[in-house]
Amino acid sequence: MEFKNHYGSVSIITDGPIIIGQFSGNINARLVNDFAVDLKKHISALAGKPWAYISHSSQLLATTPDAERGFTHLFRALQGTNCIATAYMFSSSIVLNQMKRIIAQAQSPIQIMDCLFDDLDSAKAYVLKQLEFAEMAC
Question: How many CB atoms lie under 10 A from the CB of residue 128?
């Protein structure tokens, strides 16, 4: 599903156990809220199975302060939902710095520089490998 306004857009697709959020333009709080509601539906559809998330944000310019707070709340809400791996794609240093703040404020253990990729194929390969490691550990 895609949500958009005059300034930006967000969409979510599921590829097996991988949920991909695609962001472009400038994201405000309403878009974050719409994204959060739809993301939770995608997570529920996975029925508790391990999953991974990719933020495909190479066209994202920035988020508003309210959107940043919304992402922080979403990060907190998603802890404990069996998300095994995350990967990010940013082309903007502004977005990277905003994401570092969001992760820190959400007290997430994610080390963003370890899961930052230039392209979707590399991001998918990374999260699939992490899902495979998690499956072998069970």
Answer: 17
